[in-house]
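Q: What does the predicted 3D structure of BT1 family protein look like?
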Amino acid sequence: MTRAGRIRGWFDAVVLDLGRQMRWSFLPPLMVYFAAGAQGLTAVVGTFFVKEYLDVSAAFIAGLAFWAGLPWALKMPLGHLVDLIWRWKAWLIYLGAALIAASFAIMYGLATRADWMPVIMSVTAWYVLAVILAPCGYVVQDAVADAMSVEAVPRHDAQGAELSPEVQRAQHTTMQTLGRFALIGGASAVAALNIVLFDGIETLAPAEKAARYGHIYALALLIPCISISGVLLAGWQKRKAIARLIAGGMDRVRALAAFDPEGEKVRLNHWYFTGGAIFVAMTLTVGLMDLPFSQEIVFAGSMAIVLTLMRQLVRNLDQAHARALIGTAIIVFMFRAMPLNGAASTWFDIDVLGFDQQFLSLLYLITSVLTLVGMVVLRPMIASRTIADIVILLTLAAGVLSLPGIGLYYGVHHWTAAMTGGIVDARFIAIVNTAVESPLGQVAMIPMLAWIARNAPTNLKATFFAVMASFTNLALSASSLGTKYLNQIYTVTREVRAEDGTVTVPADYTQLGYLLMTVAAITVIVPLLTVWLVQQSRFKSRD
C-alpha cells in the first residue's frame, strides 16, 4: 500500500469512523455536556475579576476551589435518584439550570457594581456564593447527562429487532468518547468567543471594563438554555421512537420499556441517600463552626462516605471485575489528585509576562481545540492500551511539559528571543507548550468511563457513573488541598492597589520558582509510584 493509501486508511479508521458511529439519539446528552464545557466562558473574566476587585490570597482561591469541588461528591445520591426516577429525570436538568443561572446572575451584579449587593453582604461573600452555586447546578445536570448517555444508545434497530451486545458495547464506547468531545467542544466555542469579547479591553477605562465583564456574565445565562434544549430534544426523540416502534407492530408497553434500564427493577438503597445526607450535614456543620482544618475534616469524611458506597457498589460485580475496578479507580484518582501551580502562576503570567485577557483566551482556545484533535488521534491508543499504560505516558509527558513554565519564570524567553530575533518570546513558548500539553488532561478519563458503560449492571448505570465520578472528583479536591498547602509553603503575593492608586500589597514572586519545581516533581513521582504498586497487587488493572 502506498503512503497516501496508508494515510487515507488511518484517517478513515480514526476520524471518519467516529463520525459514522454517531447517532441522532446521542445529541441530547451531548448538548448537556456541551453546556458543561461552555462554563469556561467566564473562566478568564473570573480570573481578572478576582485579581482586580477582590483582596484575597492564592491560598484562599485554592481553598475556595476545594469547597467548589465538593458538590460533585453529591453525585452519588443524585445518580441513584436518577436510576429510581428514570422516566422523570429531566426535571433535575431544570433544577440545575436554575442554580447555574443564579450563579451567573450574581456575578453579573458584582461586575456591574449593583448598589444593593454590598448592603446585604460583602462582595467576597457574594463571590463565594456564586462559586458554590455553579458546581451544584452542573453536578445535578451531569448526573442526568450520564443517564441520558445510557438511554441514548439504542437497543433496537429501525425495525424493532434487538441489536447485538457487541454493537451496543461499541456504541456505548463511542457515546462516552463523544461526551468528552462535547465537553471540550463547549470549551473551544467559548474560548473563541472570549477572544472576540476581550478585543481591546486593555485600553478601556475601569468602568467600561466592568461593563464588559458584566456583558460576558449576561451572555453566560444562555448556557443553561442549551442543556434545557437538550432535554426538550430528548423528549421529542423519545416520543418519535416510541411511535415508530408501535407502528412497526410493538405494543405500547414494550415500546415504553425499550427506554427503561434492563435487569431487575431498581431497589432503593438507603446507603446512597444516607451517605449524601451525612455529607451535607458534615459540610454545613464544619463550615458554620469554622473549625480548624475544616477542609481536611470534610475531605476525610467525604472519602470515608464514598469508599463505603463504593463497597456497596462493587458487590454487584464479580470478584475479578470488582478488583479491576478498584485498581483502575486508584490509578486514576492519584493521577488527578496531583497539586497544581494555582493562581500564583497565572498572576505571574499577567503581571510579569504581560499576558492579557485576550491572550489568555487564545491559550484556552488552543487548549480546547487541540484536546479535541488529540482525543481523535489518541483514540487507537486509548482502545489498545491499558489505563495503567496511559497514565504512565501522560505522567511522563506532564513532567516534560512542566519545564517551559519553569523556564519562563527564570527568564529563558529573554535568551530565546535574543537568539531568534524576538520570535521565540514568552508568548511563543506559552503557545507551543499549550499546544503540546492540551490533549493530555482528558485522555485518562475516557477508558474508565467506557469501562463503566460496558461492565456496570444496566439497571444501575447512573449509580455506577455517579459513585465512580464522586471518587475521582474527590481527587480534584485533594489536588486543591495540595495546591493550597504548597501556596502556603511558598508564599506568592500579587500587587494590590487602593482606589487612590496606593500600593497596599507589593508583588512578590521570589518563591514561585520553588513552587513550580515542587509541583513538577510531585506530579511525576507520585502517579508512577502508584501505578507500580497497583500493578504489583491483586488489583492489577488489565483493561
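A (community wiki): The C-alpha cells above were generated from the sequence. The two ends are 32 Å apart (CA to CA). The first strand starts at residue 496 and ends at 497.
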